[in-house]
Design goal:
448 residues; alpha/beta; DNAb Helicase, Chain A; Rossmann fold; nine-stranded mixed β-sheet; 9 strands; elongated
Length: 448
Amino acid sequence: MNELVEMKTPYSAQAEQAVIGAMLIDPACIADVLNKLRSEDFYLELNRDVFDTIYYMYAYGQLIDPVTVLEQMRVRGVSKDNSQSYLMELMQVTPTAANVMKYADILREQSLLRALQRVGNDITGMVAEGAGEAESMLEAAERKIYALRQGRTVGGLQKIANIIQDVYNQIAENAANDTRITGLPTGLIDLDNQILGLNKGDLVLIASRPGMGKTSIALNIAMHVAKATKKTVAVFSLEMSREQLATRLLSGESLIDSQKLLTGRLSQTEWERLGAAASVISETDIRIDDNPTLSVAEMNSQCRRLDNLGLVVIDYLQLMQSAGSGHSYAGESRTQAVSDISRMLKIMAKELNVPVVCLSQLSRANEARTNKRPMLSDLRESGAIEQDADIVIGLYREGYYDKDCANPNEAEALVLKNRHGETGTIELLWLPEYTSYVSAEKKHTDDE
């Protein structure tokens, strides 16, 4: 029975041999192969050992040919009695290194089929054992399939060499781009410099009292990311309707007073600006769902189906359901529910490998203080929120509390937690007529 299963396992011994043979014949192709293949893509152990050895030698800048590879295999303890003759055979059965990437494509295809076979077996076993409710099993199955589509595995121990190679490639890419930030740009330059942009897998929390403008800054960020990167931005609005969000985007992009925009009493010039703004926004790939009863699992499920996802925005945390059942919570149980949601959001960010920006309410605790600037402890029903979030940004405007102050539209983004660097305060400017935040520096430059 085991032999029958072994025979049915998808793999191509010829393609595996051809890839390694090409790497031995022409070391110049090694870099391209390493960008495409990983150790686990090789099914046969002997081929995997040779590939790992070449990988190791390449990482350390060592000369690669059959003699040096064989010696390194001995040093690493993976050499067999037939290793020398096998390396010679690999070079003989590989006519040329010119087709190496075609061989690599075959290898990836077979590796993906094997992974799909494993996932299929896992799902079948899960159903047979009755491991949980159908909804939870469907969620687990979707997660496994999505990971395959992204070329990743769910869980499992990974070799540090593979992880180092990925990190090294990312650092090299950042260096080539000559950028100060490592993630997606928010459009707020000083904020980007402080948090290094919105990075993959990060949970970014933007918190404030109601009416401070957290939805506005989230839309500003969503719009900038969509325009600057051409990636899909998914916006889940549990409070405002699609139409309300679209109106805000139009107001900010056209620089037309939002109240005036709603009345439709616009000048010819303003109609032209509105048309141009509508065209710009329509060319972006912003997707909006305004279902107020969405759970994290449902959001995650929708996002998995997006091919070019770059950012997820959720407005806002306290309105979310821990499950799609619509249960309400009170007291300690609600605090626990919010903590569970924040944990699921962090898991979602890691799985989708995109930044997730989630808005959150602050409690009234800050209003009892003389200095009303937000603190981490002000997070409403905080529980584990501050632990799960990679970055926490609190919004503050003195004009929110004192409309007669000298500069009511001056604002601050307080970086209260930052896993990528230091905390600090970023100066912003609130433009109430357009419900938008802009960098203080940018506004000064525009005025000049």
